[in-house]
Amino acid sequence: MIIKLYGVRGSIPSPTSNSEYKEKIKRILELAVEKQLIQKEKILNFLEEIPLPLSYLIGGNTTCLTIRTEENLYILDGGTGIRVLGEEISQNPNSYPKVLHLFLSHTHWDHIQGIPFFKPLYLPNFTIHFYSGFPDIQERLMYQTDVRFFPAPFEKTASKKYYHHLKVGQPIKIENNIEIHTFPLKHPGGCFSYKFISLKNNKIFIFATDVEFTGEEFLGKQEYLNYFGYADILFIDSQYTLDESFLKIDWGHTSYTMAINCAVRWKVKNVILTHHEPNYSDEKLFQNYLYAIRHRNYLEKDRPKIFLAREGMVFQL
Ligand SMILES: [Zn+2]
Ligand SMILES: [Zn+2]
Q: What is the CATH classification number for the domain harbouring 200?
């Protein structure tokens, strides 16, 4: 499985502000002065060496990622990141299958907002299978593009569309070597996590956003241990700092501290912190990332390995 991230922001798209952009440039130039960089040829090497929060943008698109297997392209959530994926597909049509499988965790705006801007939706040679734990997913998607909100009605778009209701405790297979499980998450209006198990090499990827883990889960409820235990990669909601999570109880999201507690308890190997708070700058997210590592170390664990989700990141399992 090759996992690629297209959108990692929570709640609402949040483009980088001009002030944040300028601040990054200012700090990069300060570093260049410190290093007495005067030769043009050395610029590329210098850029490779600068600290992480200066060398990339986290990205402002909302949740979307892909899992590429030998046979299929699975898309998880249709936040604004899916628009970028659609562009990639339309520019390199021969590199992608014409049958796509889109899994939706839930239908809050930030997880479906990109779907009306997903080019393959409008192309007659594409077939899109929609999967969800919600039985009325077709009606929800049609409602999103009601003429009061969007000019192109969903059902009139040219691709072929099929809808599948996923049930908890009933894994499915779309191809022989991949088993997909569904698990309910605590979130206003409900939400579902999806677990992809490669039966070929026994690797496990879990997609778990949006969710509010508050404590009881990581204290060892067997159903959570069974579902999340020993995942190779857990892509998990970690929207807030711990302090902010106390101010936002029942908003449906998890602090990075609690996300690490869960991952440690569940013996996860790698954790990707995601669904970033739109009000947090790259700088603040990177600080939180360092605190998350410190928190894991405080728990006296060297696992899981922690990653801060950013657009364009690729993982291989
Ligand atoms: Zn969300
Ligand atoms: Zn949500």
A: 3.60.15.10
Q: What phi-psi label fits residue 230: left (phi over 0), alpha (psi between -120 and 50 degrees) or beta?
A: left
Q: What angle do CA 63, 292, 182 make, to 5 degrees?
A: 40
Q: Do you find a cis peptide bond into 232, omega within 30 degrees of 0?
A: no
Q: What's the CA-to-centroid distance between 129 and ligand 1, angstroms? A: 21
Tens of pLDDT, residues 259-293: 999 999 999 999 999 999 999 999 999 999 999 99
How many A from CA of 7 to the centre of ligand 1?
11
Residues with CB under 5 A from ligand 1 (ion): 110, 210
Report how far ligand 2's centroid is from the alpha carbon of 11 (Å).
7
Ligand nearest to the CA of 79: 1
Full domain range(s) for residue 175: 2-14+58-316
Q: What is the pLDDT of residues 79-117, one digit of tens each?
A: 999 999 999 999 999 999 999 999 999 999 999 999 999
The span from the CA of 163 to the CA of 32, in Å, is 54
| Planar angle of CA 178, 267, 276, nearest 5 degrees | 80
Within 10 angstroms of residue 174's Cβ, the number of other Cβ atoms is 16
Are residue 46 and residue 165 in the same domain, yes or no? no
| Two structure tokens written together for 72 | 């299929």
Tally of structural domains, the chain: 2
Please list, in sequence order, all residues whose beta carbon lies within 8 angstroms of the beta carbon of residue 265, skipping any fewer than 6 positions away: 218, 219, 220
Distance 75 CA to ligand 2 centre (A): 17
